Amino acid sequence: MAMTRDRKSEPASAAPEAVAEKAPAKRAPAKKAPVKKAVTLKEVAKHLGLSPATVSVVLNRSPVADSIPRETQDRVFAAARELKYRPNHLARSLRSRRTRTVGVLLPEVVEPYATGVLAGLESHLIHKGYFYLVASHRSEQRLLDEYLDLMRTRLVEGMVLIATALEQPPSVPSVVVAGHQKFEGVTNVVLDHDRAADLALRHLLELGHRKIAFFKGQEGNADTADRWRGIQQCAATHGIEIRDELTFQLAGEPGDEISRTEQAFRQGEQYGRRLLERRDEFTAVFAFNDLSAIGVIQALVSGGLRVPEDVSVVGFDDIVNAQYYNPGLTTVRQPLHEMGETAGRILLERLTGEEPAMESAAVVTIEPELVVRDSTAPVR
Amino acid sequence: MAMTRDRKSEPASAAPEAVAEKAPAKRAPAKKAPVKKAVTLKEVAKHLGLSPATVSVVLNRSPVADSIPRETQDRVFAAARELKYRPNHLARSLRSRRTRTVGVLLPEVVEPYATGVLAGLESHLIHKGYFYLVASHRSEQRLLDEYLDLMRTRLVEGMVLIATALEQPPSVPSVVVAGHQKFEGVTNVVLDHDRAADLALRHLLELGHRKIAFFKGQEGNADTADRWRGIQQCAATHGIEIRDELTFQLAGEPGDEISRTEQAFRQGEQYGRRLLERRDEFTAVFAFNDLSAIGVIQALVSGGLRVPEDVSVVGFDDIVNAQYYNPGLTTVRQPLHEMGETAGRILLERLTGEEPAMESAAVVTIEPELVVRDSTAPVR
DNA sequence: ATGCCGAAGTGAAACGTTTGAGTCAGGACT
DNA sequence: AGTCCTGACTCAAACGTTTCACTTCGGCAT
Lengths: 380, 380
Known about the structure:
2 copies of one chain form a homodimer.
Chain A: H1 16-26, H2 41-48, H3 52-59, H4 70-82, H5 89-96, E1 101-106, H6 112-127, E2 131-136, H7 141-153, E3 158-162, E4 174-177, E5 186-191, H8 193-206, E6 212-216, H9 224-237, E7 247-249, H10 260-276, E8 284-286, H11 290-302, E9 312-317, H12 320-324, E10 330-333, H13 336-352, E11 362-366, E12 369-371
Parallel strand pairs in A: 1-2, 1-3, 3-4, 4-5, 5-11, 6-7, 6-8, 8-9, 9-10
Antiparallel strand pairs in A: 10-12
Helix pairs in contact in A: 2-3, 2-4, 6-13, 8-9, 10-11
The structure holds a DNA duplex.
């Protein structure tokens, strides 16, 4: 369906020669368009008196080239350099059926979570000679489907989905960061949420906190279920009571005009105000993410409580805001860069390895890390 | 890779038996790889009893197709849909010499400035059927050059450089966001720094501030010179004295391990401490960006000053941190999304318009906006 | 009957690579 | 003297489109 997507913006009627005519017509002193025609493999071959095949094989260091004498190879390389030969990636991909391109789908390119992962992913991919195409689906299924389609058309070899759930098994090998659905051909890279809950709760326990308020994530968030399970389990282990009156679920409509980022903050604030009504029933808050933690602090402070003296707050993610907030936010750090790198590594291994590219579902867990700053303190 | 061979190629080409031999020979228990071979234009044509040329022309709504009756066209579209035909982007690009892809170069994919622009850029590009490749050069010239090269190999039709200075005229039409160098074929999208300075200083003046400390940007930053000129000019106009002792230049080595983000914050802090020694000589600080503003606030507050009661602080950029900081940061907002969109629009106009793609240098200015929050107040 | 025209396509050459199957000398071995 | 290598390449067919020049056919005017 997407193939009919040509925009009317096409000045299709503009015949190609319109340009040629115009150039001399318009500005007489204008330089003859240099139109640097790229030098092709064939030209290099001709220049060397060899066949394109030979040159190709040498330049690609194909195993077939083993039988070609060192000296010829050197000549080839020298000529390629001299003529500034650059292989045409399109032609190469077309023939070899390898585009060395992967697709990345994420909710929003401005979300720190997504870009943290993206940075790690990029460092690995580029290092291995791959590029990536990005599209933000803004949590709209319609867009997600459309982009999946477009990426297929673009012949990406694999996909990385960041905080983005698939509804159907993907058409190419994929890695989902923070994914929970198991599909054939996709590997999920997930944080070890049990460990995360343990880190945060143990820290609070050691500070003497027993009465803790919790935030649950949005229904749509891939991490919500896992993390909540981790928290429940860990709380049970340590004999911490989870009270419904102190548990708040973040809500968030996909496709809202307000970005999820802002929503989290606002809801943190809002629940903070609710918490003020029960100020004696808790001494700590374990938020779902840093923004909601910051929001809750904002509200608590406005209500006359001090953080961390009266209430300790633990965030999640360790986005830049956490570090530079006042007080510095104690938080469970997700090693986003590492998660991205891992996603990239796994995907490329699948794409280039001898393993069947479409393997059964797999999961890779990443260990979180507790970053203690100034928003937590011993219970007063 | 070897397994991408597929038994469906039988009708067309010879020597399918090589494949047939191998499949059972290698791994008997292995699942038959389904390997969905994409349906090609030729197949659609055959199915319709038409030639590939006709089908191509119709699907592309080429003007040549005008002479083809409505009914045939409908049949073509129907068949394409039915067979789930997806044009092979590589082949198409190779032939038509249009990749519908642009390259984006930026310092770091985690920098809020860059992603703000990127988001705007993406929304325009994807809407017009373009994709983009991204690479982060981490302010290293070596990487920048390398990536420029790779993008050329990938045949991007144009480039967008975000907060990234070129040393040489680019090989394809380009737009530089926050660029100051003028080259043939590149359009610079820049903030109106005169206006920005005016907005900030007038705001401070109206609050009664006369003694103002200033931060200058890093030498390497594209906006530094422009903005400083704007400030000087505007200060002169309003009779504000710029004192050297109250002027601080952010420094930052490219390629430092510490990200620029962090550097800005640290230097803000550091200069904040220096300012504490002159606490009576100023009542306001105009920082270079939000992070350095937040850093300076952190230091001033630690030193016993209150913001905004004792000192007003104005940031620049309006990154998310500004909004959620405590106090909310008054700042000069750069409409990053709009800048990105503009960059995309201009680039595509150049690529598809009838104007010669390589035109002489041009500049587009974007108007900033003052966002007043809680870090500024009337002078006490 | 001839010529011409428009409608409705078709044929085949690109586009720049990669790749599997050959070729072709010249030496080693039998 | 024939066979068999092996080294050093070359040939030509893909890969899936787009594009320009060309054909074919019926109808209409001359």
